């Protein structure tokens, strides 16, 4: 396909992460050949049925150029979400960048909660218990792997 716009003007290194259960952060870098006045705009669509929305809270660099977006109240659906970043400049047409992302794959899980440790000095053993972390997506049958590091003091 022929993309309108100057070669090397589309954003690079686009990535998103979901954290704290319902927050999402997406970041990118300006295209290496983009004119200095290029400004970028992010649109996303959670699923085909939902309407496309523009970022409400941009992250800006020192030149006031949009280089990321913070989303609040994100919930993870079963479909891939669609992301589109386009740009504008007085001097030339800017190429767009788009990507489909499975949101559950980019969720950074919260730590387990309610961790308790009960040690028995006579038996010389300890029982460590915790609750599984809260997750943004609703898949109840998730298998969690935990790693416990014990340091003796």
From TrEMBL:
Indicate where this protein resides in the cell.
Membrane
Q: What is its main location?
A: membrane
State the UniProt keywords alphabetically: Glycoprotein, Membrane, Receptor, Signal, Transmembrane, Transmembrane helix
Gene Ontology CC terms, in alphabetical order: external side of plasma membrane
According to the entry, every stretch annotated as the Type I cytokine receptor cytokine-binding domain falls at 13-106
User: GO MF annotations for this entry?
Assistant: cytokine receptor activity
Q: Which InterPro entries match?
A: FN3_sf, Ig-like_fold, Short_hematopoietin_rcpt_2_CS, TypeI_recpt_CBD
Q: Which domain of life is it from?
A: Eukaryota
Q: How does it sit in the membrane?
A: Single-pass type I membrane protein
Q: Does the keyword Transmembrane helix apply?
A: yes
- PANTHER family, per database record: CYTOKINE RECEPTOR, INTERLEUKIN 5 RECEPTOR SUBUNIT ALPHA
The name this protein goes by in its record: CSF2R factor
